[in-house]
Specification:
The protein is an alpha/beta fold and 451 residues long. Helices cover 36% and strands 14% of the residues. It has helices spanning 23-35, 75-78, 87-97, 109-118, 134-149, 192-195, 206-216, 238-248, 268-272, 299-302, 326-339, 344-365, 391-395, 399-411, 430-450, and strands spanning 54-58, 61-64, 69-72, 127-131, 153-157, 198-201, 220-225, 252-256, 279-282, 293-297, 370-373, 378-383, 414-415, 422-423. The protein is globular and about 65 Å long.
């Protein structure tokens, strides 16, 4: 069993803001609004009465600048699998700082040690190339697939998220009626020519995929798939069906393990679902809060990025100033040490089951009509009676009502990313769960009173 670091700063008062905003935090809000588009660091912003400015975190908790406490189920979008400020990460980064931080994309011993450590846990990995993020990883995997097949198109599944680049930002959250395999842009600024290079199929429908590949397969370089697509579990045999169809059509199968990598066991989704893709992409847990990602896969595909082939027709350029960053690689090595300890995943999966069961009990007692579901260290909730299997099932639920309830959970100090999956870290414990159930009970009471 992993030794959980003590949460010395955790108090046992009431969670959430409850109107308490200090003058210092209010000043931060004003500066953020002057400095950043929408007062936000990226593409997500909370409702005005639930937003906060992060100050410090420890384990499964964090505190805002006003001193309000939250239980964290966002965990830096799943990157903080070891929780906030894990001692092993702190020690590894501090030690590396004394020996240097980075050397551009040239060899360093920390990156080589990390490659040795993680490649045995990536079933497809005959070669690996480190990147700086999940988006970086999926972009480079698609380029490698195009170079290898000499084809231009990529197929993704409706509702899947594969990063911020133009080839990925289509049909992630479409509201218009589906016209498969045509994709729908998620953002302005995507050239029409690029949009046409990404095709779309419904998740969990192997027959629809087979039909699309029968018609367009000769033009498709890669099929990219999240093994667990956001909050959707794959139907039995679905991933294996993708593997068979891509092999049949000479298409590169890219398994996007940015979320699932090292989360569903040390061997990730490839081990959990017994699947071997051609390429796999990584991020999040690999860096455990620092900017580390990776592309791994078959040697004949990855070796296109061999720098000695520059100038040759089959050379695929892949580079980045911060690739193999020594601080990130040191953190990754420490993360692997922790995750390799006996009982880590068993305890985490048990904790996740207890969380889902307890939340469902609260929602049922209040007759909320909310279903709590998920598998392993991710959990989800929707106003529905049946667990969804594709994107259209999700949009058919009352998402506006869920957004209002999620805001109430935030007010009660349960940090969840509205409209998205939720995570557990290895630091969450029984006390966190009991406090979460109490907060959910209050959220239900306030929500029903308001509506």
């Amino acid at each position: 069993m992993v030794t959980i670091s003590p949460q010395t700063n955790v108090t046992h008062g009431r969670l959430g803001r409850h109107g308490h905003t200090s003058p210092e935090e209010q000043a931060f809000f004003l500066d953020a609004e002057r400095s950043f588009p929408g007062g936000a660091l990226g593409g997500n912003a909370l409702p005005s009465d639930t937003r906060f400015v992060f100050d410090h975190g420890e384990g499964s908790h964090f505190w805002d600048v006003s001193g309000n406490e939250y239980i964290d189920y966002v965990l830096s979008s799943g990157a903080l699998f070891l929780g906030h400020a894990h001692p092993a990460i702190q020690r590894a980064v501090a030690d590396q700082l004394t020996r240097g931080t980075h050397t551009f994309a040239y060899l360093n011993n920390t990156a080589i040690k990390l490659a040795r450590r993680v490649m045995p846990h990536m079933r497809c990995a005959e070669r690996i190339r480190f990147t700086t993020s999940g988006s970086d990883s999926t972009f480079n995997a698609m380029r490698l697939a195009r170079g290898f097949t000499r084809r231009e198109k990529v197929l993704k599944f409706e509702g899947a998220y594969h990063g911020v680049h133009d080839y990925a930002q289509v049909s992630t959250t479409p509201r218009a009626a589906a016209q498969y395999p045509r994709s729908i842009p998620d953002t302005a600024g995507i050239p029409g020519a690029v949009q046409g290079l990404t095709l779309v199929a419904p998740f969990n429908d192997i027959d629809a995929l087979a039909a699309t590949l029968a018609e367009h397969g000769k033009d498709i370089a890669a099929v990219i798939v999240e093994p667990i697509q956001r909050i959707l579990m794959p139907k039995p045999g679905f991933l294996q069906g993708i593997r068979e169809l891509t092999s049949k059509h000479g298409i590169v199968m890219i398994l996007d393990e940015v979320v699932t990598g090292f989360r569903y066991g040390i061997d990730g989704a490839q081990g959990y679902f017994d699947i071997v893709p051609d390429l796999a992409t990584y991020g999040k847990i690999l860096g455990c809060g620092l900017p580390v990602g990776a592309v791994a896969g078959r040697a004949e595909i990855m070796d296109q990025a061999n720098p000695s082939n520059k100038g040759k027709p089959d050379y695929v350029y892949q580079n980045g100033t911060l690739q193999g960053h020594m601080l990130g690689c040191a953190a990754s090595l420490a993360t692997m040490d922790v995750l390799s300890q006996p009982g880590v995943y068993e305890r985490l999966f048990q904790m996740a089951d207890k969380l889902r069961t307890g939340l469902q009990r609260v929602f049922d007692e209040h007759e909320m009509g909310i279903l709590t579901f998920g598998e392993g260290p991710m959990w989800h909730m929707l106003f529905t009676d049946v667990e969804p299997t594709n994107w259209r099932d999700i949009v058919a639920t009352d998402t506006r009502k869920m957004q209002a309830f999620e805001a109430e959970m935030l007010r009660q100090g349960i940090f969840i990313l509205p409209g998205n999956r939720r995570f557990l870290s290895i630091e969450h414990d029984d006390n966190d769960l009991e406090r979460t159930f109490d907060a959910a009970d209050r959220a239900c009471w306030h929500f029903k009173k308001a509506t």
